[in-house]
Amino acid sequence: MSVAEAVDYTTSLAGHNRISTQALTSLARAAAAEALGVEAHDIRADWADDDGLLALSIVAPISVPALTEVLRDPQRVQGFGGSIWDRAVAAKAFVLETVTRLSGSQLSRVDIRISGAHVTEGGRVQ
Question: Does residue 119 contact residue 61 with C-beta atoms inside 8 Å?
Answer without folding.
Answer: no
